[in-house]
């Protein structure tokens, strides 16, 4: 019987775990590119729709609000239907609001489409779920963090390449009003294409697809056969809520920065749309190596000092992120702002990787629920940051406040403790489970 992979062989596409790994991060990349494709276009959209600062804030909040609910739903759905079916459905349905945004001609229509696009942010939970059931404990932290980091780079790629795509379309003779709409069509079409590839080349777990295994009487190790019991079980575990807060502090801030960075650089430092996109994109592209590094360090520490090392690493990364964010908030020149953003971005992405390196060890029998709740925490943090910015009315003050809140939240990582029995059980499972 096929078992979980105990190593990550990046050039191997033959085994189910490695195919799931590669298609999971590619699907995640496409979804995040689509999710954040609107962000670097906001200066143009703001101008065309004559948006107020309050309306821009509402759009940014809408972009992440619905993701909270969808992330909570898709985790248990993965337990029930398998990650393959859930991912395909999310990409096919998620393409509709992306294409709808390209047809919007007023604030209300664009706001509703932006709300719908936010659902594709739940792709992260499915990616983490799929790699968690495919890889053994000795490498699952690295597998989770690497697939998430490479996929998460889709947000940075959107920041960087969407302005270039826009410029290319304008060079072909399109007006700005038509060009930004045409730019959104590409990610809208890429999502159903990736859905078809995901359906063709992946399976739910090393042994096969959940529905086929259950017909044969085989109990899959993902949890409770997908009822909402996994969500309920996860919600009763205090460690889940500690990671909910830490993920709000790292991924929530990351999403907030993705949504405001381009327009912030344009408004506050008078950069061009292309320059602002390159600056903002550099933050997102850090995820390619920084997030995997967080997972790799977590696995390395756990081998030497057990599960507690994962918690302590997360504490240090969250604290470093908070300090870096405070430094970024004090930047008075564009070059210093970019340097500070890259510094705190490094800690932010590593903290995201370290958080999900802990997720598979919280409750193996409620993996979908744990992944969903912790993932939703990231978007709760982004929504909270959005409301904070809207209430304060000044991004500089908002960033300072966020820096302090993130630093304080690091204590939640220290609170993630494991009993001797839990630690011994995980040690006994070792590299094969």
TrEMBL record:
Occurrences of domain Major facilitator superfamily (MFS) profile (ranges): 20-421
Residues that span the membrane, as ranges: 21-45, 57-74, 86-103, 150-173, 179-199, 240-266, 278-297, 309-328, 334-359, 366-389, 395-416
Protein's UniProt keywords contain ATP-binding: no
Claim: Transmembrane is one of the keywords in the record: yes
Gene3D superfamilies hit by this protein: MFS general substrate transporter like domains
Location within or outside the cell: Membrane
Record-level GO BP terms: nitrate assimilation
Descriptive protein name: Major facilitator superfamily MFS_1
Species in which this protein is naturally found: Paraburkholderia phymatum (strain DSM 17167 / CIP 108236 / LMG 21445 / STM815)
Membrane topology summary: Multi-pass membrane protein
Gene Ontology cellular component annotations, sorted alphabetically: membrane
PANTHER family, A to Z: HIGH-AFFINITY NITRATE TRANSPORTER 2.3 (PTHR23515)
GO MF annotations, alphabetized: nitrate transmembrane transporter activity
Keyword annotations: Membrane, Nitrate assimilation, Plasmid, Transmembrane, Transmembrane helix
Family indicated by similarity: Belongs to the major facilitator superfamily. Nitrate/nitrite porter (TC 2.A.1.8) family.
């Amino acid at each position: 019987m096929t078992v979980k992979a105990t190593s990550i062989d990046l050039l191997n596409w033959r085994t189910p775990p490695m195919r799931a790994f590669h298609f999971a991060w590619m699907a995640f990349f496409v979804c995040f590119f689509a999710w954040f494709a609107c962000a670097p276009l906001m200066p143009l959209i703001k101008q065309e729709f004559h948006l107020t600062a309050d309306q821009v804030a509402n759009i940014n909040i809408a972009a992440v609000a619905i993701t909270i609910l969808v992330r909570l739903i898709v985790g248990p759905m993965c337990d029930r239907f398998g990650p393959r079916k859930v991912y395909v459905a999310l990409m096919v349905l998620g393409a509709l609001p992306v294409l709808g945004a390209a047809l919007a001609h007023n604030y209300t229509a664009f706001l509703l489409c932006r709300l719908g696009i936010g659902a594709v942010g739940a792709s992260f939970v499915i990616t983490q779920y799929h790699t968690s059931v495919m890889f053994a404990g000795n490498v699952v932290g690295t597998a989770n963090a690497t697939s998430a980091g490479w996929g998460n780079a889709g947000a940075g790629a959107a920041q960087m390449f969407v302005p270039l795509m826009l410029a290319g379309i304008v060079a072909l003779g399109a007006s700005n009003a038509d060009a930004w709409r045409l730019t959104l069509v590409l990610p809208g079409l890429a999502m159903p294409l990736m859905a078809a590839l995901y359906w063709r080349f992946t399976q739910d777990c090393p042994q096969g697809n959940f529905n086929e295994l259950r017909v044969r009487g085989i109990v899959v190790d993902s949890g409770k056969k997908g009822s909402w019991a996994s969500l309920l079980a996860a919600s009763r575990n205090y460690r889940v809520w500690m990671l909910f807060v830490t993920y709000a502090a790292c991924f929530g801030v990351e999403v907030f920065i993705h949504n405001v960075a381009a327009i912030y650089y344009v408004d506050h430092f008078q950069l061009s749309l292309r320059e602002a996109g390159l600056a903002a994109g550099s933050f997102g592209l850090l995820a390619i190596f920084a997030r995997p590094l967080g997972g790799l360090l977590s696995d390395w520490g756990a081998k030497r000092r057990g599960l507690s090392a994962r918690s302590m690493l997360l504490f240090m990364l969250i604290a470093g992120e908070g300090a870096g964010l405070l430094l970024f908030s004090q930047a008075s020149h564009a070059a210093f702002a970019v340097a500070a953003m890259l510094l705190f971005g490094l800690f932010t992405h590593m903290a995201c990787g370290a958080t999900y390196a802990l997720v598979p060890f919280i409750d193996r029998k409620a993996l979908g629920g744990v992944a969903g709740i912790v993932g939703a925490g990231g978007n709760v943090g982004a929504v909270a940051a959005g409301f904070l910015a809207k209430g304060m009315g000044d991004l500089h003050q908002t960033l300072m406040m966020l820096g302090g809140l993130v630093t304080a939240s690091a204590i939640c990582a220290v609170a993630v403790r494991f009993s001797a029995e839990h630690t011994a059980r995980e040690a006994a499972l070792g590299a094969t489970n």
